[in-house]
C-alpha cells in the first residue's frame, strides 16, 4: 500500500491538544516520522515503526512534592502501584492519555486501507457534553436510533462538517454553542465534565465479526473501553433500546438499493438485502450486515481538576491535594479521532479474518445445493 | 481443586428456561456431566470436558417452510449466510442462546475458584425492564453510582435475595411486581421487551487488568457484549456519570477499614487505601482497586416475536413472517447467571495473569528505595 | 466444504494400533463420529466436534499397585506430578499417545482442504529405525538432501506405496525387511528402539510463513516436537547440511517448468522461478518457495518396556519396576499419519494467514513501480 | 527488577560482528539505550523500549545493480517477493541477521530475571563446524547424550570458558584449533560452512511446559528454528538417540542430592527425585524435570558467498551472480549468544505460565488425599 507521513498526520493533528481554548493548552506538534516498514512510499509488509517526539513535556508539572505524596483520586496512580509495586515519577507514566498517539497513528493506516479497498468512511462526533445532548432521549425516542433525523445524520456526516463545529465537534450549531458554554463554566470553576462520542462506520463489508466470543460489537466494546477515561459503550439502539418493544426494535429486511454506477467502489459486492430501520447498529448476531455500524462511547469527567480535593496520602494520612498540571476540563472533543482510530483497527482485524475465510473458500470446487457466496447485488 | 457436578449445576439450573411463566416454556433439564479433567472429584490440571444433553429440542418449531424462506429480522440468519455462505436448518444454529450453557458451566468453575481463594462474590440482578428501573435516573442522580442506596445494595445483595424475586430477579418488591406485569403485557401482545442487568464483583483482588489495551473494563465489556442480545455495557457511573462534575465524580481515597478477624479470607491481603465513593466502579486506569466492581449490561427486546412482521425473503421478495417457535418475551431474568459467569471468567483470567507477575516478582531480591509490594493492611 | 466421516476415517485407521505384529496389540476401532459443525455433509463454518469412543481400554493394565508406587522412567508421570501436584490413575492420563487421535482427525480435515484447493500432497514415511536408514549418511552425502535418489523419492512417493511397505512404512523392500527384523529383535528382548520419519509436502503455495518469529519451519518444528516421543526436527538438508559448503548448499534459481495443462490444479498460479536443487527444503527466509517442503522428525525408543528397570519410587526408595501394559517396541510406523496431520494443520494455518494478506492486498489500486503480485507463470 | 544497560550490553557485545578474523568485518558498536520502561534503574512493569543504532551500514554493498537483478540463492529475496509482492532495496531488509539484535537484548533481560530468581545458568557453545565435532558420533555413542564426558561438560561449562575459545567458541583446545583452520579454508575459497550450537539450561525449575501442543521442547524448537539460517533442532539424545535401545535410553529415577547449604538459591525448592542419566535432556512429557535441559541447533552454511553463482534473474534469465557484500564464512560462533537469548525467552514465558498456576493453586484450601505440591527436598 502506498503510505507516507501525510496519510497519518491529519488524524494526529486532530488529536493534538491545544486546538482551542477549551482543550489542554499543551502545544505539542506531534509530527509523525515513519522509521521502518516502508520504502519509496510503499509498505514492505513488515512492521511499520513510527516515532512522534514529545516536544513539550514539562516534567516539573507533575512529580512535584505534593503529587509524590498523594495518589490522585480516580487516576491510575494507586492501582498502578498496587499492580506493579513501583510508581513512575512522570505524571502517571503509562496511564497518560498521551499513549493514544500510537492508537491514532495506527488507526490512520488501517483507515487508509479500508477507504481504498471498500470506501469505508469512519466519522465520530460529540453526541453529548454533560447534560447537553445532540439528541436528548424522549419518551417517543428513548434511543436516538429510532429517530429518523439521527439516522439521516449518521448516513451523511463527514469529518469536515464535524470539524467545522470546533471546539466541541458536535454537528449542530445551537447545541454546539451550549456545549462550549458548559465546558467554559466547568473550566472557570477548575472542575471538569464528561460526555459521549458517537461514531459511524459506513460501507463496512458484511460478514465481519465472529459468532460467539469475538462478536464484532464485543471487539468494538473492548477497543473503546481500552481508551483512557471511558465508562461505557452502546451499539445501535443501546441502553435506550431496552425500552423499545421488539415489534418496533426489529429491523425488517428490504431489497438493497443498487449502488450508483458512478460511485468509487461500485465494484465491491454489497449484500442483496438491507434493513429498513437500523436499531441493530449494523451488526446482527455479532456479524456486520453491511448497514452503517454506529455506537456511542461514554467519557467521564477528567480526573485531574484544579480544585482542592480532600483525600489520603500513600501513607493513609488524610490531606488535601491540589493539582497544578495542565489539564482538559473535557476530553470529549479530542477523543473523536481516537474513537475513529480504534474503530478502524477493529474493522481492519475483522476484514483480515473474514478475507482469509472467503479467500480460502473461493478456491474450493462449488458445492451442490448451497447458496453461492459473495454474490452480491449486481451494480446498475 | 475439588470439583464435581454439584459445583456447576446450581448456575445451570438458574439459567434454565422454564423457571416461570414469563420465560420460555422449554423445560430443559440441563444436567451437567463432567467427562474429563477430574478424577475422584479433583481437577487434574488438564482440560475439563463437560456434556449437557439437549433433552427437549423440537426441531419442527424451527426449520418450518416459512422460516426457510425468510431471514428473521434482527436475528443472525442473514449475517450468518453473508459470513459463511451456508445456512443451518436448526433454529439459527450456532447463534441460539442455548450456546450460553457452556459459558455458565465454565463460569461456575471459575467462580468456585475465586470464592475459595479470595472470597470473591459475584451477584447480578435485573436493574430495569423496559422503562421500569430499580433506580430511575434523576437530575440529582443521573447515575445510580452517586446514590447511597444503590451503593448499599451492591455491597450487600446476594443470590438468594435475587432469586427470592423470581421471576424478574429485581431485588425490590414493588419494582419487581411492576416489571412482572410489564413483561406479561408484552407477552400477551406477542411482543417483547428489553432491560438491563447490573452485576457486582466483591472482594476482587486489586491489581487486576492491564494498563493499555486489556484494561479490566475492556475485557469485561468484551465478555458482556459477546453474550447474545446485548447492546451496551457501562462501568461504575457509566453513561449517567458523564453528567456529573469531576469534583463530584472523583473518588477520594481513605484508609481502608480493617477486615474483621473472623472473616473467612482475613488472611488475603487487601489494599491499605480504598475510596470513599465508588464512581469508578472498582477499576481505575484499567486496573482493579479492590473496591466492588460493578457494571450494567443492556439486553435488547428478543428478536423472535409472535406478531406477524413485514419483511423480505432471502430472494428479496416482500412478505410477512410469522414465527411459531417458543420464545421469551424478555431475556433479562435468565441473563443474570450468564452475566455472572462471564464476569467470573474475565476475573479468573486476570487473576492468573497478575498472579504470574506477582509470583515471579516475589522471587527477586528486594529493591532499594521501592515501596514493598503486596504489603496490604494487616488484619486486626 | 463437503465433509463427512469418510474424509477423516482413513487417516484414523492408518494411525490405529494393531495393524501388524510389530505395533501395539490394542485393537481399537477408532470410529469417527462428527457431532457438530456440518449439516447435510457440508461444513457450516462453526467448530466441528468429533467423537471417537475408546472401545478397548483396559484400565487394569495401568493403575496396578507397582505403577502407583513408581514414576515410569522417561515417561511423563513424574513431571506431571511436579507440574500439577496430582496424578491421574489411568495410564499416564493426558500424556498417553492416544491423545494424537484428535490431531489426526483435525489434520485429515485440513488436508482435504489443501488437496482440493491447491492439490497439496502430504506424504510421510519411515526414514530410519535404529541404525537402519533408507539413505544412510555418507562422506559424499552427509545429508540425503544432496542425493538425487532421495530428491526423486520425495517428488514421487505416495501413501499407497508407503503402506505397501507395512508394517514399517519404509518405501524400500530391502531396507524395510531389515527394519522389520530389527524391531522384532527388540520386541523379543522386551526392549524398544527409535527411528525417524521423513515427510514431504508437495504443491504447497509459495509465500507461506512469517519472516521473523513464526517462520514456517519454526511452526513445523513446534508442531512436530509437540508429538509425544519426538526428540528432533530437521528441515531440508538439516543436520547433515551443516557439513556441506555453501557453494554446494545454495539452491540456484531456474525458470519454473510449466504445469502440464491436464493437471487438476493447473489454474492455481505457481511461482515463475524454482530452485535447481532443494537443500532449503522448500523454505527460504522462513517462507515457502513453492518447491517440495520436506523435513525429518526423530522419535525416541518408547519409554514403556517389558524389561525390569532399577529406579526409584515416588517416595525416593530404590526399587525395580516391571511394566505389564501393552506397548509398542517402536512407534515410528504409526507416527507416519500423525506427522502428516500436524504438517497439514501448520500449512492450513499459514494458508489462512497468507490468504488474508493476499486477498486484502488485491482490493487496493495497483501501485506504480512495483512488481505485480501473484502473477505466476501462465499454464501451457 | 533492577535493570540498566549494563545488564544487556555484554550479550550484545558477544553477538557483535567483528570479534575476530573469522567473522564478518562489520564493526558495529551495538550500544544499547533503554528508552522506556525503567526509571532510576528499576523496571516499571510497562514495556521496555530499547534502541541500538546501526552505526556502520554501507548501503552500497547491497542494492547494487547486480543484486537488483538476481534473487540471491538460498536467501530470502525471492520468497519475500512471493509473499509481500514488493522487495526492499537494502540488503534483504527484514531477513538480515541484524534482526537478532532485538532477540539478544530481550533475552538478556529474561536471563537476568531467571538468574536472580532461580540461579538459572544458560550456556551455549559451538558443538561442530563442518565435519569437526566436539563429540563425534561413534557406534558406542551415536548420541553424545550417553557419553559421560559430554554430560560432565554440560554440567560445568560457563561463558567465560566458552569465550576463552574465541573465535570458534568450542570448549576444547584441539578441536577448536581444527575448527578455526577449517573456517579459514572456507574463507580463503570465498565459500562458507555450517555447524551446530549446543545449549544447556541449568537450575531450570521443574514443571515448565504444557502437556500437549506447547510442550517445552516444542517451544524451544519453535524459538530456535526462528533464528535465521537454522536447519534443525534436537533435544537431549536427539537424532542419535533413535539408535539407542529403550533399556539404555530410559533415565532411571534416583533420590535428588541435597543442595549444598551455601549455594545462592538453596531456598528455591528442587524436585525430590532426579534422573541418573539424562537422555531426556531435562524434559519429559513436554515438562521440565529439573535436570539440565540441553539441545543442539543446526546452522546452515551462510547463503551469501563471494564465489560466482550460476542462477536466474527475477525475470527468469540465466546468469551469474557475484555478491560483493561483507559476509561471514560461518555464523556458528556468533550464533552462541542468540541461541542463549532465545532459550531465556522461552523459559521466561514458561515460568510465568507455571507461576500463575502454582500461585493460584497455593491460595486454595488443602485437598485430602493429594500429594502436597511444591514440597521439594528440604535443604541440608
UniProtKB/TrEMBL annotation, chains A, B, C, D:
Listed GO CC annotations: cytosol
Pathway of action: Metabolic intermediate biosynthesis; chorismate biosynthesis; chorismate from D-erythrose 4-phosphate and phosphoenolpyruvate: step 7/7
Region of interest (Disordered), residue spans: 1-31, 261-282
GO MF terms held by the record: chorismate synthase activity; FMN binding
Top-level taxon: Eukaryota
The keyword Translocase is assigned to this record: no
The protein's enzyme class: lyase
Oligomeric form and interacting partners: Homotetramer.
PANTHER family linked: CHORISMATE SYNTHASE (PTHR21085:SF0)
Name assigned to this protein: chorismate synthase
Organism: Westerdykella ornata
Amino acid at each position: 500500500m502506498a503510505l507516507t507521513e501525510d496519510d497519518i498526520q491529519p488524524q494526529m493533528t486532530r488529536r493534538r491538544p491545544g486546538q482551542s481554548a477549551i482543550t489542554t493548552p499543551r502545544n505539542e506538534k506531534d509530527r509523525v516520522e515513519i522509521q521502518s516498514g516502508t520504502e519509496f512510499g510503499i509498505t514492505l509488509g513488515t512492521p511499520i515503526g513510527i516515532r512522534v517526539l514529545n516536544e513539550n513535556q514539562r516534567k516539573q508539572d507533575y512529580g512535584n512534592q505534593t503529587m509524590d505524596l498523594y495518589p490522585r483520586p480516580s487516576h491510575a496512580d494507586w492501582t498502578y502501584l498496587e499492580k506493579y509495586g513501583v510508581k513512575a515519577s512522570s505524571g502517571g507514566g503509562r496511564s497518560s492519555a498521551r499513549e493514544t498517539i500510537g492508537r491514532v497513528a495506527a488507526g490512520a493506516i488501517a483507515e487508509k486501507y479500508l477507504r481504498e479497498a471498500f470506501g469505508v468512511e469512519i466519522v465520530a462526533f460529540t453526541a453529548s457534553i454533560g447534560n447537553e445532548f445532540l439528541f436528548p432521549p424522549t419518551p417517543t425516542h428513548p434511543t436516538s436510533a429510532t429517530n429518523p433525523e439521527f439516522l439521516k445524520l449518521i448516513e451523511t456526516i463527514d469529518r469536515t462538517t464535524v470539524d467545522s463545529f470546533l471546539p466541541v465537534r458536535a454537528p449542530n450549531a445551537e447545541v454546539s454553542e451550549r456545549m462550549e458554554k458548559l465546558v467554559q463554566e466547568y473550566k472557570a470553576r477548575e472542575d471538569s465534565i464528561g460526555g459521549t462520542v458517537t461514531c459511524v462506520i459506513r460501507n463496512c463489508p458484511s460478514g465481519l465479526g465472529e459468532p460467539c466470543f469475538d462478536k464484532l460489537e464485543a471487539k468494538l466494546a473492548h477497543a473503546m473501553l481500552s481508551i483512557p477515561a471511558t465508562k461505557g459503550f452502546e451499539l445501535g439502539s443501546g441502553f435506550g433500546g431496552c425500552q423499545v418493544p421488539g415489534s418496533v426494535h426489529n429491523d425488517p429486511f428490504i431489497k438493497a438499493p443498487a449502488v450508483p454506477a458512478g460511485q468509487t467502489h461500485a465494484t465491491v459486492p454489497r449484500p442483496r438485502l438491507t434493513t429498513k430501520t437500523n436499531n441493530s447498529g449494523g451488526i446482527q448476531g455479532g456479524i456486520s450486515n453491511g448497514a452503517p455500524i454506529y455506537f456511542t462511547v461514554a467519557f467521564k469527567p477528567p480526573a485531574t481538576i484544579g480544585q482542592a480535593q480532600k483525600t489520603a496520602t500513600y501513607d493513609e494520612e488524610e490531606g488535601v491535594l491540589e493539582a497544578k498540571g495542565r489539564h482538559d476540563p473535557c476530553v470529549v472533543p479530542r477523543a473523536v479521532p481516537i474513537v475513529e482510530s480504534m474503530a478502524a483497527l477493529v474493522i481492519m482485524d475483522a476484514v483480515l479474518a473474514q478475507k482469509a475465510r472467503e479467500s480460502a473458500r473461493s478456491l474450493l470446487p462449488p458445492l451442490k445445493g448451497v447458496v453461492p457466496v459473495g454474490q452480491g447485488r449486481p451494480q446498475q
